[in-house]
Predict the 3D structure of the following.
Amino acid sequence: MDIRIPLFEKKNIVLGVPGGIAAYKSADLASRLIKAGAVVDVVMTAAATEFVRPLTFQALTHRPVALEMFSLLQETEIGHVSLGLRAALMIIAPATANTIAKLAHGLADNLLTTTALACRGPILLAPAMESGMWNNPATADNMDILRRRGFHAVGPEAGRLASGGYGQGRMSEPEAILEAARWVLSRLGPLAGRTVVVTAGGTREAIDPVRFIGNRSSGKMGLALAAAARDRGADVTWIHGPMSLRTPHGVRELAVESAEQMKNAVLEAATAADALLMAAAVADYRPQAPAGQKIKKQRGGLHLELVRTADILEAVAERRGSSGRPRVVVGFAAETQDLLANARDKLARKGMDLIVANDVSAADSGFEVETNRVTLLDASGGIEALPLMPKTAVAEAIIDRLTSLLQG
C-alpha cells in the first residue's frame, strides 16, 4: 500500500545517483519517494549505470532516466536547467567523495553536477564512501564548504563497508534519507518559527529494581504528531516514555521513564513553547515506597500501596495562567466508557483548547495498532468526529487544527 505523505504530494524531486556500491539503495529510495506522492526524476552518472541499470529507476518512477549531458527532456528544454529549476528538492545518494569534491568546487562535467549547479531548491546529500575517504581532511573541508552554502546532509553511518571493513562511511538507509528530506522540505511550512512540544508513550512506575507498573501505550500516536508538526515547519521537542520507536529526523528527543520525570521535562520545555500536545499515557498512580531490592516471591499475595502521581496538565494550566505559555494546549482522553462526557469534563477542568477523545477498548483503535478513530472537542463547544484512519492521517488532522488555533 502506498503511504502518502502530504509534504511530498506532487512535489518534483530530482534524485542524483553517482557511481557507488550504495547505488542499489537509491532504487529503494526512489520507490519510497513515489509511494509518498512525489514526482521523481532520476539523473545518473555513467559510473552509476555500472552498479544499477537505468531501466530499474525508469520502472520505479515511470519517467525516463536522464543520462546524457546534452540530451533534451523536451524539444525546447535544456535538460539540466529544466530539472534544476523545477526541483523542489534534489537528493544526491550515494554522495561519493568525488561528487562532493566536484560540487564544492563548482565543477560541472556531467549531467548530475550540472543539474546541481542549476538547482534553485535545497540539496540533500547522503554521503557514502570508505571511512578513510570520509575522514580525509579534503573531504571534511569540502563538506564544510557545502554546508556553508546551504547544502544539507544525512549520514554517513558506521557499519560494514564494501571493503569488508567496519567504519564510518556507510550510506544512511533509505528510510532515514526520506525522513531527512521531509525535514528539509518542511522548513518553510505554516508552523515555521513555532515551537511545539509533543509527549508520547506510557510511563513506568517502579515497584522494585525489576518490576514496574505500566500501560499498553506504544507511543505511535505521539510519534505521528511529532512528525506531522515537524513537516509543517515547527521546531519539535518529543518527550517520551520507554519505547522502541525511532525519533523523526530534526526532532529533539527527551527520553523519560516515570510520571515525575515527564512532568519535570514538560514543564521545562513548555515554558517557551507555542503549543503542547499531551499524547502520552501518563500513569495516574505509583507505588508509595518502591523496594530497593527485588521483591522475592512469597506465600500469599503482594500488597502495594499506591499514591497519585502529579497531574501534568493541571501543572501546565497553573503556569500558563501567569506566563501565557504554551499558547495552545491539546490533550487526549483515552476512555473505555462515556467517551464524550469524560472528554468534555477533562477539557474544561484542565483548561485545554482542544481534546482528542478515543475509545481504547475498540480493537481497531487506540493502543498498539496502526489506526485510530477519534473525536475532536474544542473549548468553544465544537465537536468533530473523524472516521477510522491511520494514525498518521489522524495526526495530520490534529496538526491542521493546531495550525488554525495558532494562526487565529
Summary: The chain is about 35% helix and 20% strand. The first helix runs from residue 23 to 36.
